TrEMBL record:
This is Protein GrpE. Belongs to the GrpE family. Residues 17-32 have a biased composition (Polar residues). Pfam families: GrpE (PF01025). InterPro entries: GrpE, GrpE_CC, GrpE_head. It comes from Mucilaginibacter dorajii. The keyword Cytoplasm applies. Residues 1-60 are annotated as: Disordered. PROSITE patterns: GRPE (PS01071). Participates actively in the response to hyperosmotic and heat shock by preventing the aggregation of stress-denatured proteins, in association with DnaK and GrpE. It is the nucleotide exchange factor for DnaK and may function as a thermosensor. Unfolded proteins bind initially to DnaJ; upon interaction with the DnaJ-bound protein, DnaK hydrolyzes its bound ATP, resulting in the formation of a stable complex. GrpE releases ADP from DnaK; ATP binding to DnaK triggers the release of the substrate protein, thus completing the reaction cycle.
Length: 200
């Protein structure tokens, strides 16, 4: 009896050893593998969250700010460049006219030297007349024109009345009788009003 008890005890111990613990069978393996595969598939099929509407708006705002800053910088550069160009143009705006008038200045200097040794007045007068004509031609080429005022009706847009005098004839009433200072236009714009005497 003791021997049987011992055998039973021995069998029981043998059953509890790790060798006897159920090892995974191919069936068990496939089930476990299937479970693992399903878990992996569910992980793969879970959608990775894309950018939210807020993220999209932030991105658009960032792009708009970047465009704005670039545009502002370009406009600022353009403004500075045009200011510089205007300043340079103002400094040299009369350059062409001055260059054109330099020969007239040279002629006046020659005439002055000639007057110092001149005995006769006629050649000096002729020289001054030539210089005046040269000056008028240069100014005419640049767009300057004299106003013809004498005999024309008084026009406040063109004339500045110095005084009124009784008209010598009835047809000169309200018209320019004499001119104290000529008026000039530059490319059809009045740059100096003619100072005139008007018949009353």
């Amino acid at each position: 009896m003791k021997f049987n008890d011992m055998l039973k005890k021995k069998k029981k111990e043998n059953m509890d050893t790790p060798e006897n613990i159920s090892e995974p069978t191919p069936e068990n393996l496939t089930e476990e593998q299937q479970l693992k595969d399903q878990q992996a598939e569910t992980v793969e099929t879970e959608e990775i969250p894309g950018p939210t509407a807020e993220d999209k708006l932030k991105d658009e705002l960032s792009q708009a700010n970047d465009k704005y800053l670039r545009l502002y910088a370009e406009f600022d550069n353009f403004r500075r460049r045009t200011q510089k160009e205007r300043a340079e143009a103002r400094e040299t705006e009369g350059k062409e006219l001055i260059i054109a008038l330099l020969p007239v200045l040279d002629d006046f200097e020659r005439a002055q030297r000639a007057m110092e040794t001149a005995v006769d007045v006629a050649p000096v007068k002729e020289g001054v007349t030539l210089i005046q004509n040269k000056l008028k031609n240069i100014l005419t080429q640049k767009g300057l024109a004299e106003m013809g005022s004498i005999g024309s009706p008084f026009d406040a847009d063109l004339h500045e009345a110095i005084t009124n005098i009784p008209a010598p004839t009835d047809d000169l009433k309200g018209k320019v009788i004499d001119e104290m200072e000529k008026g000039y236009t530059l490319k059809d714009r009045v740059i100096r009003f003619a100072k005139v005497i008007v018949g009353a």
